[in-house]
Every structure is written in structure tokens, then in C-alpha cells.
Amino acid sequence: MIGTIIGMIVIGAIAGFIARALVPGRDSMSIPATILLGIVGSFVGGLLVSLFTRGDGDFLRPSGLIGSIIGAIVALLVYNAVTGKKRAHSRV
């Protein structure tokens, strides 16, 4: 149990930092927020994998490192779109 939690934190940190590095623009997230981004990304990645493959019907499951990174990128892009951060300045 404790090993699973520590594993989720480590994978979350790695996936969150990589997602923040790959998404253009500056992010002012704390380390705990980055870890949370990676953990959420892991579940988003698991959902995406289960939607595109024949799964056992378990939609809310964590994925591996690659799925976590992809899910964290998706989660960060959605977060930025919802909060209006990193919006391009329009010239009038």
C-alpha cells in the first residue's frame, strides 16, 4: 500500500515535470501541484488507454509513465484552457 502511494508520487512528479516542459509557455506551479498534475495525468492516461483498447471496463485506473505523461499534457492543456492561462494576445 505505501509502496503504491510512493510510486504514484514519483511517477506523478516525473510526468508532471515532463508535461510542464513540453507544453509551451511559463507555468508557475509549485512542486506539489506538479506532482498532482502527474497523478491526475496518470488517471487521464489510463482513461484514454481504456477508451482506445479493449479493456476490462475499468475506466479509472492509473497508467504507466508514457500514459501518465500524455495524460498530464492533456490535463495541463485543459487546465490552461479552462482558467484562461497562456492565452495568446490578440492584436487589434
What secondary-structure arrangement, pairings included, does this model have?
Elements: H1 2-22, H2 31-52, H3 65-83
Report on the structure:
- This protein is mainly α.
- The protein has one domain (2-83).
- The protein has 3 helices and no strands.
- The protein has helices at 2-22, 31-52, 65-83.
- The chain is globular.
- It starts with a helix and ends in a 9-residue tail after the last helix.
- The mean pLDDT is 79.
Tag the structure with descriptive keywords.
0% strand, 67% helix, globular, 3 helices, 92 residues, mainly alpha
Coarse shape:
globular
Order of helices and strands: HHH
**Helix content, binned percent:** 55-70%
Please report the total strand number as a whole number. 0
Q: Mean pLDDT, nearest integer?
A: 79
Helix/strand-derived class?
mainly alpha
Distance between the termini: 56 Å
The structural domain count equals 1
Number of helices: 3
Which stretches of 5+ consecutive residues score pLDDT under 50? none
CA gyration radius, whole angstroms = 14 Å
Major β-sheet annotation: none
What fraction of the residues are assigned to beta strands by DSSP?
under 5%
Structure summary:
With 92 residues, the protein is mainly α. The chain has three helices and no strands.
